[in-house]
Write a structure and sequence with these properties.
Two copies of one chain form a homodimer.
Chain A (H helix, E strand, L loop, with lengths): L1 E5 H12 L13 E6 L4 E6 L3 E7 L2 E4 L1 E6 H10 L4 E6 L5 E5 L2 E5 L1 E3 L13 E6 H9 L16 E7 L2 E7 L3 E8 L7 E6 H10 L7 E6 L3 E6 L2 E6 L18 E6 H12 L10 E6 L2 E8 L2 E8 L1 E4 L2 E5 L1 H10 L4 E6 L6 E4 L5 E5 L7
Antiparallel strand pairs in A: 1-5, 1-7, 2-3, 2-6, 3-4, 4-18, 6-10, 7-8, 8-9, 11-16, 12-13, 12-15, 13-14, 14-27, 16-17, 17-18, 19-23, 19-25, 20-21, 20-24, 21-22, 25-26, 26-27
């Protein structure tokens, strides 16, 4: 095999496929990427057995062939080479010579046949969404999932398409994040649970381009994302997702409208007094048109007032500051509406059209 | 005590004194800074018993007094407060109220009398150098010292003034870094060993201002740096420094002139194949007007050629790539001269006027 690339094309492709290379594994072949130039196009593939990525790379095929090559070392070499033509050439032992200007690397390779190919997906049901929007809704919900939970379902996100709307939901037992977005076009109904890792890796590869589209295909066990020159295939999480509609409510006793930045800055300061170990809540005390942020810890105390608009009753309620922060940080609006019932009931941060809904459970506090 | 500051002045002063606050200590008072407003100026002091920093802060004294306050928490609070007037007020129990706009922090303080004041230095012998130059020569030598050595002398740098020249020297048993700089003005001869930690913290506080001067004062046990509104006092390392003149030589068998950036890039790539554990050298093979960088490891091999100017014999010699890199990275020149004798003898990277000299011991290699 002998291939010639521009460094920029090679860098871009390698960085995409690296996202599905596991950092720790007992199967050394998974640490490789497959370079496949057996046809008239060059494809790079990585596969950690849950998530697989295949991307087509611009380059000249001087001699056809394929090879598996250690992903991290290969990526490091490509990154450090001069910005010029890079040639990759393998011999019969899969030793790969990587040359650029006066640099000549020789690294071990393995047979391309050792590599686990991606599963074949029948492109049946599908939806289409812009790269920008998909990236946004992932980033606006993914923080709410549980990264390593005994409950596998909490490590994924519900992706549901129904009545022209795509819904993405993450939850971890203390909070729920929901994003709804209307899609243009006619698609079949879909309801699947996608692993969180898949979504977070995809969001890193997606550009913020609102014009460029992602086509998403579904089977019973797999989801496939297709955009630019890249295909990403992931297993789905098997089973029934939580019945979130039961947990949502439009009733409230108190509704406030608050400046998001002022609230974030205030919580940020309150956080200074809370050590990781002591998990002390911050107390939100709403009186008339003022929201007081309070915290009392071994390190000291903080009180601040923020002007708000209020409908309904006064209330004092405690929260894990991280949960408030995570939600507020991903909201684009300058002013946010927060709905409260009582100090034991969840609060809701949501906009009028329920494009986003963040449910957060309160915590007990001693005033 | 009641003081009012602009946030910017407070931030600057706190960041300066933080440099002498130890991250780990069994003496909790060392984690504090002293805020002293008993006179007509406000001074912040920190002291880890080796290194002490005192800086004068612009601010209004409403009520005189002093307090010791936990440095890290105080710095974090100041950083997160709005960009406005910040008031610090203490009561008779040293509880400190920090207010800014609608934020009110209360944190515990301690009596200012608990604090260890800086030693008094008789300002006798002194030299003067620009902030820019002092910062430069520290950064260009400090990497060569041994951070944690049984040999205490290797953890410091020799600072010597003689015949109008300031010399700064660091060494660790494998290499030596020397910077010489001519100073304007008449000063007494000086020869002291300054702790590396002192120098590295000072270099972080110094600005890159070539017009602003640092006055350095010496006693038998201490060194004092005075610049802007800040005084830094440090213990000296006691004892006789190494006789480095015996290790230096102007003889050579091979002299090469090489493009610094090309050499750095090449070593950087060679490094990719060297794992931390295996400590393999890179091999430099000089033949005619070409320098070949070679490395051979379990991960693969690399060969590159760089065009050079050469005087004298061909030579093949092995080096720890880190030592070459550390020196090359701090040299400002585009082209550097390297002097070699044989594969067992140290190499010298130095300029014609010996403003800098980097001695590096070679390592054995199997070709």
């Amino acid at each position: 095999m002998k291939l010639i690339f521009d460094k920029s094309n090679l860098t871009k492709a390698v960085n995409i496929v690296l996202k599905a290379v596991p950092s720790k594994t007992t199967m050394s072949i998974l640490e490789c990427i497959l370079i496949d130039a057996t046809t008239n196009v060059i494809k790079f593939t990585s596969n950690d057995m849950e998530l697989g990525i295949e991307t087509t790379v611009q380059g000249d095929i001087i001699e056809k062939g394929k090879v598996s090559i250690e992903a991290k070392l290969f990526a490091d070499i490509v990154r450090k080479l001069p910005d010029n033509k890079i040639t990759i050439e393998t011999d019969e032992n899969y030793t790969s010579k990587i040359t650029c200007e006066k640099s000549k690397f020789n690294i071990a390779g393995r047979s391309g046949d050792d590599f686990s190919y991606l599963p074949t997906i029948v492109k049946d049901k599908s939806i289409t969404i812009s790269q920008f929007m998909l990236k946004e809704i992932i980033n606006q919900t993914i923080f709410s999932i549980s990264p390593n939970d005994n409950n596998k379902m909490m490590t994924g996100e519900l992706l549901e398409f129904k009545e022209g709307k795509l819904k993405l939901v993450g939850l971890d037992g203390h909070r729920i994040a929901i994003r709804n977005v209307a899609l243009e076009g006619e698609f079949d109904d879909v309801k699947v649970v996608v692993p969180g890792k898949t979504l977070s890796e995809i969001s890193k590869i997606l550009t913020a381009d609102a014009e460029s589209m992602v086509h998403i295909y579904f089977t019973n066990n797999h989801i496939l994302f297709e955009f630019d020159d890249t295909i990403i295939v992931s297993r789905l999480i098997d089973g029934e997702y939580f019945r979130i509609n039961q947990m949502l409510s439009n009733d409230y006793e108190t509704k406030i409208t608050i400046n998001k930045k002022e609230f974030i800055d205030s919580i940020d300061r309150a956080n200074l007094l809370i050590s990781e170990s002591d998990k002390r809540p911050i107390i939100i005390n709403i009186i008339d048109n003022s929201l007081e942020v309070k915290v009392n810890s071994v390190n000291g105390s903080l009180n601040e007032d923020i002007d708000i608009e209020k409908e309904g009753k006064d209330i004092m309620i405690g929260f894990n500051p991280k949960f408030l922060m995570d939600a507020l940080k991903v909201i684009d609006d300058e002013m946010v509406d927060i709905y409260l019932v009582n100090p034991k009931a969840p609060c809701f941060i949501r906009d009028k059209n329920t494009n986003y809904i963040y449910l957060i459970l309160p915590v007990n506090f001693t005033a």
